[in-house]
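Friendly challenge for the regulars: who can give me the structure tokens for this chain first? No prize, just bragging rights.
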Amino acid sequence: MMKKTTTLLFAALAFTTLPAPAQVSGTVEGEREYPLSHKGQLTGTKARYKGELLNGKRHGRGTMMFDHPDGGQELYVGEWRDDQKHGQAVLQVRDYTYSGQFENGVRQGKGAETFADGTTFEGEFVNGKRHGFGMMRYANGVVHEGNWAEGQFHGFGLRAYANGTVHAEYYLTGVKALSSFDISKIAQRPLGCNGQFQDWVVYSGVCTKQGLKMGKNGPSAALMHPETFDWHTIVGTQGWFTMFQQGVVIEGSLRAPFDFTTAKVMRPVLRADGKSVDMQAQYIGPMRGLLMHGRGKCAKPGGGMENCTMKDGERVDD
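First reply, four minutes later:
Bragging rights claimed.
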């Protein structure tokens, strides 16, 4: 069945419309067979190539097909340069398909992947790995849109679940470090609260004509910015502020919403096991609004804390 499917795909891809490569002087149509190696050893099988050649090398547009050492077949239809995959192409290896850009033999630039279970990815590649911005659509209905590094989720992203909920998330090398509340219904909430927080959505809390309802210990609410997805949670005179796109969390005492008196500023750090994170303090001390301001403690490069002076978020030690 695999051989039949691959043969049909071979025929279909032979007519796939690809951007025409630049005209190369001296190219000729030809066929070649190439000995294959796998993990440094010759396999005894050969790749079959049909397409343009320049000085005996694959150069221009061509198709190559061979039996893969791990089973199934591999098919490449697209552009070549100096005997390497280079340019726009379609690659199929068994039940995996990649359509996009190659550079010097590896996936590089914009591309799309399709896997056997129906999962797809569209985004950027560097050195053959997902790297940059991309969107993964899983077969179970989950969609992840965000940043990647070295083939892993890394940095800020949005994850939509099959039940309709959406979360802003922050990852370190594939490990989830921060996650928001459900943000799927924020578009239904008006900005501000009767003159307060004009750029923010009141996610939880009670708005009155005087603004956010105040209890005897101060306001109790959760506010979210609809563009940056930053969260500000307030319970009495204590507050937490999470900047998802920077992976920064501020925790401390408040004069008023968005105005900390003292706080601990933290970032997630990957543990040695590579499977979990710790929230590591970057600064402990006085604040001005959301900015570190005054004499406090700052994280040292090699670990631990040291005395420091901050002004409007910048370190200004004497």
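The longest helix spans residues 2-13. Helices lie at 2-13. Your move, everyone else.
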